[in-house]
Specification:
- This is YmaF family protein.
- Helix content is 0%, strand content 43%.
- It is mainly β.
- It has one domain.
- It has a four-stranded antiparallel sheet with strand order 1-2-3-6, with no helix packed on it. It has a two-stranded antiparallel sheet with strand order 4-5.
- It is globular, with a radius of gyration of 18 Å.
Length: 128
């Protein structure tokens, strides 16, 4: 089974000049459908005497078909530590004037001098 994709290949500035070099592939379409991403941000629950802020972008997904996005980011450094945030959004929720957004929620990784986690959740930015 062949799935047509398009994208850009960019030379990596971190590559070695001697015998090896590398490139980064940025996909722009999958099976003829453009790929898109969403921004997400928020503040975690208040646990163990503090909260954390977070922000990031989802992984790309095809436009115009039912889909979800994976996401990953690291929280702000508060109270001497930070947490990882990782998950998969809910399904696309259509907007009245076109585009869509996704809900996301979960719990952070466990960290801190008194090991704990935080809850987080919200809505992604709308798609174009």
């Amino acid at each position: 089974m062949e799935i047509p994709i398009t994208g850009l290949i960019v030379h990596s500035p971190d590559s070695s000049l001697d015998s090896e070099h590398s490139h980064v592939l940025y996909l722009t379409s999958w099976d003829g459908r453009p790929l898109h991403r969403h921004h997400f941000s928020g503040v975690t629950s208040f646990n163990a005497g503090h909260e954390h802020r977070y922000a990031g972008r989802t992984e790309p997904a095809p436009t115009g078909v039912p889909h979800k996005h994976e996401y990953f980011t690291v929280t702000s450094f508060n109270d001497g530590h930070k947490h990882e945030i990782r998950g998969v959004t809910g399904a696309a929720i259509p907007l009245p004037n076109g585009g869509h957004y996704h809900n996301f929620r979960g719990v952070t990784s466990v960290n801190g001098s008194h090991p704990h986690r935080h809850e987080y959740g919200g809505e992604t930015s709308p798609s174009d």
